[in-house]
Amino acid sequence: MRESSAIGAECRLLLVRHATAQGNGRFQGQRNVPLAETGRLELPLLVKKCSMYPVRVIYSSDLRRASKTAEAIARQFGLEVKIRSALREMSFGLWEGLSWKQVRSRFPRTARLWIERFPQHAIPGAESFGSFKRRVVQEVRGIVRTNPGRCVVIVSHAGVIRVALARALGLPDRNLFRLEQRSCAVNVIDAFNDGAIVRLMNA
User: Fold this and answer.
1) How high is the pLDDT of residue 9?
2) How many CA atoms are closer than 13 Å to the CA of 169, on its beta-carbon side?
């Protein structure tokens, strides 16, 4: 029996946010920070959660906090991690490495406009939200097309996962941050030819 018959979808996606990284709570963006000790301690439970699914392929962002998380899952299934730079978090430009308190202190006007006009207002030196969204959607579509009938893990970042979930749910971009994504959160989307069903969020 094809896995698609078993799971009832063309492709099942397990979207996993990486474990807690050093500097958690800051705008990490594309900074290549490692996992914190807390994050490494979170991995066994995450692996257990993923073990409930018939995972056949594992993809990851190339940033260390994601790839190291993916490697822990891959060992459980005896798989290799497929690295994809397009699964990186959005670049936050001059805000990277800063807390929200620091951002509001150093860039008060930009911070206010970013909140009021998201996603239209740009962060200095950052990737535009439109560009970020396009690369994420294109990459996820490619993964779905490449893996018909399979259960696939994608280990990535909060922004990437929010874009994928919002697209599946039909949410407008301005509501993206209403979707919480904890460290090691697991989200399940069944992708079909004509749409998607969100089965699980932030578990």
Assistant:
1) 64
2) 19
**Chain position carrying tokens 């460290």:** 183
Give the closest residue to 38 by CA, choosing from 12, 18, 20: 20
Two tokens, residue 83:
């690295």
Chain CA centroid to CA 184, Å:
10
Please indicate, yes or no, if residue 104 is contained in any of the structural domains.
no
Distance CA 55, CA 62 (A): 20
To which residue do tokens 């822990």 refer?
A: 72
* pLDDT at residue 5 greater than cutoff 80: no
**Per-residue pLDDT band at 3 (split at 50, 70, 90):** very low
Number of domains in the chain: 1
Q: Give yes or no for residue 4 having a pLDDT over 50.
A: no
CATH number at residue 63: 3.40.50.1240
Determine the Cα–Cα distance for residues 37 and 131; give it in Å rounded to an integer. Answer: 33
Who's near 8: CB < 8 A, 6+ residues apart? 190
101 within some domain: no
Q: How far is CA 120 from the centre of its chain?
A: 21
> Which residues lie closer than 8 Å to 41 by C-beta, 6 or more apart?
none
